[in-house]
Structures are given as structure tokens and as C-alpha cells.
Amino acid sequence: MRKLLAFTVLAVGCGGVSSPPEPHLIPGGGIADGKITSNLNVYATDDETGAVISSASVRVGASSDPAACVVLTDSTGLARFDTKTCPALKGPATVTVSAAGYAPATWIGANGVNMTIAIRNMNPPPVDMATASGTIAGWDSLPTPPTNHQTLALIGYSQSDTLGDRANDIQQGTRTVTVLTVPVTIQSNVCVLNALVSDCNWSMKTRTGTQAHYALIVDQYNNMTPDDDSDDTFTVTGWAIKRGLTPAKGDALAGETLEMIADADAQSFTASFASLPSGMNFMGAFPALELGDEGRIPLVAPALDMTHTTTRVPKTTGALAGTRYSLIAQAQDAKDQATPSSLAWLHDVNVGATVQLGSWLPPPSTISTTGGTFSFAAVPGATVQGGEIQDANGNRLWSVTLFDGSTSFTLPGLSPDPLPTGTLSFQASALQIPGVDVNNFTLDDARHKITGIANDVVMFTR
């Protein structure tokens, strides 16, 4: 986890007058150092790697502002503004960062002397990866399942705590196991035990950085229809874990042994859920084991919903001492329709009592894209609102965040125009982040405080 920078100490000049805060990078992005009066420092960074972006264009001014100021970032990713070169500079400001190959980002109503604005690479490089392989201690001692059952273990790596991190969704390969002299292809990060085979020589691709590796062990019942997987049921029977791993790019961690967590070291996890937001008919939820610097393990099976509200989870003792649980739930229109949606996130929950999700953040409504003006109704309880312009595949083309409570905007003109013609979508969103000051925050800190994310989308033609 990246460390946060300390606040800049203001130096005292002649006559007791404080000089403006020095420019400094805010890891992950954010706003700091008081309201804009005569100076503004903006860093441009890559939202995935955190690397600074040189020669990015930073525009200060509303879309219709004839006196908007534009400065290119230097080799450190910094663009400086002051009232000598940008007479109209004042806060709150509209700041747009753009660069070749990146989706622009616009912050409206932002008011801090130092800003770091991260923009998304539209053609990002491959995710840095390592590999790991090993087994699960005691696998060969497990009892052979009865007819029509088999024991499976799905091995995974803890996710980073960055929402939407591509490294959290690395596709796995396959391997071959021999069943009665017949080679059978299975997923490489799966162990299998049945009457014909016992094999737990797993391998997987994993992200880099501090992490844990784990196994979710389940009983698969084929419902006496071995040729039809659609009616199979899966019952969680246990877990295994290995912590304290720090693979770097290209590393091959071999000979890992995941240690099983005893059934006596598990406990019930029960949740209750408020009625779904209007218009939504599907909900899924799961506990997440929060490991601190090692990331997060989503315990997604069995999924919780409005009728299935109890599962079993490992206790936060022994190998898991010092960890904690959160509850993540998402409501949406239907299982196969992702918008409108509302995600609720309860942090540091008490597993010893029923975890109560008392309310959902409603999605934005009255969304409009008329005449080049994007608008939506205010969402009660939202800390900030905004949206993304996306292509037909849901890829970000431009992101906009409104810090001043406004609910409409027009995009500033950029050259070249980053938006293609044709059918696009506008996804309006609302974030609920209790305790965050929108004029003094870091995204690294804010992401740990998010309790609600809601969105809905409309299509438009350009």
C-alpha cells in the first residue's frame, strides 16, 4: 500500500508573510494545501501505474471560458499556474488534464493549491505478473467424496485494494490431469479429488506486490446429471492460506504449501439487507477478508442475497490474526443487466453480530445529454457526483468529477477532439465517502472510506 505524503510545511518569508505551498505529488491523486488564491500546481499521472506524465495538457477554466489557461506538464508531470500568467485564476476551478493516448479527466469545482489528477491509458501495457505453484497441506489425507460428488479447490491471490485494478482479474491457464490413463484438461489453479483422481499440483498467474495466496475448497454435487453442469451445486467445506508473499514481475514462486484452516477456526457470518432501490430486482453480496497491505480476499461462495443471508468464514485468529471483515453488496436491475446499480460497502464489520446493511445509495436519475450538456438529478447522500463518456465497449473516453454539488456540465473543447462520432454512452455516477473533505483528500485514503457507489447509463449519438 502506498504511503501518504505528509502535509507540506509552509515557509515564512520576509515580514511574516507565508509563501505559497510548494508543489508536491499526491499519491493516487487528490487535492491539498488550502484554497486557490494566487497559485495552482497540477500533476498529471497514470491512474494505473502512478507514473507522472510529461507534456500533458492542463487546462484551467470552464468549458465556455474565453480566458482559459493551458500549460503543458514538465518532465516531473507538473503544470504551474499563477495570477501573473493566468489572471483569471481563482478557486473553485475547472481543471482538465489530457494527453495523447489517454482519456481526459475534468474536475469541476476543485479548490486546492496542489492537485494530482490521474488519467487512464486507453491502450495500457500488459499487467505485471508473476507465477506461483504448489499444493495444499493435507490434500492427500482428505476423504474420497461419495458418488456424484467431488472435492475441488480454487486457488487465488488476494486482490489489491484499488477498485477496477486490472491486476485483480488475471486470466488463468489450464493444465492436464490423468484419469485412468486419460488426460483431462482442467483450470491450472484448481485441485481435484474424486473416486478416480487426486491431484493438487496447482499453478497460477498472480499480480505483483505484497499479497496472500488462498484456496476455497468446495464439494461439487452433480445432481446425478454428470453430463449437465448447469444444475451442479457447490458447498464450501474449507479454506487454506499462505501469507507474506511479495512476488516481483517475472518471479516464479514454486513449492508453495497452503495451510488448511481448521473447521474449528471458522464462524458464521450473517447479514441483513435493506429493500433494494426502486427498479432493481437482483442483489448479490459477499464478505471480504481485509488483509491490510496484503490486500483483500473476496469470499464470494456461497453468494449472499435477500433470502440467503448466512455463510461461514474463517475466524480472524491464528494465521489471520489482525485481519478484519467488510461486506460488499451490489444491487442491479437484473443478474445480466449491470445498470442501474448500487454498490454498498460496510467496513470493519462485527462478525459476531448480524451485519446490517440499512440503506442503499440510489442511482442518479433524470440523466440527459441534450445539446452537449450532460446533466442528472442530485443523489441524496452523495459526497461527489460525476460521470464517464464511454465507447460502445464500455471503455472510458472522458471522466468528469463535480466537487461543488453541481449536476450538469459541458465538456471543454480539446484539440484533437478525444470523442469519436457515433453512438456513445454517458454513465452518471454518485459516490458516498463519509468523512472526506473534497477540498483536502487523497484518493488512496478515500477509497478505504467508500460506503456507496451508484450509477446509471444512457446512450447518445454524437
Name its key features:
single chain, 462 residues, mainly beta, Immunoglobulin-like, 3 domains, twelve-stranded mixed β-sheet, eight-stranded mixed β-sheet, 1 helix, disordered N terminus
Q: How does this structure look, described?
A:
The structure is a single chain. By secondary structure, the protein is mostly beta strands. It contains 1 helix and 33 strands. The strands form 6 sheets. A 12-stranded mixed sheet has the order 4-3-6-8-29-28-31-33-25-24-21-22, with no helix packed on it. Strands 15-14-11-17-18-19-10-16 form an 8-stranded mixed sheet, with no helix packed on it. Strands 1, 2, 5, 7, 9 and 32 form a 6-stranded mixed sheet that branches. A hairpin with a 4-residue loop joins β14 and β15 (198-199). The protein starts with 29 loop residues before the first strand and ends with a strand.
Class of secondary structure makeup:
mainly beta
Largest sheet entry: 12 strands, mixed
Q: Give the strand content.
A: over 45%
Strand order of the largest sheet: 4-3-6-8-29-28-31-33-25-24-21-22
Radius of gyration: 25 Å
Let me know the average pLDDT. Answer: 93
Low-confidence stretches: 1-16
Question: What is the rounded distance between the termini?
Answer: 41 Å
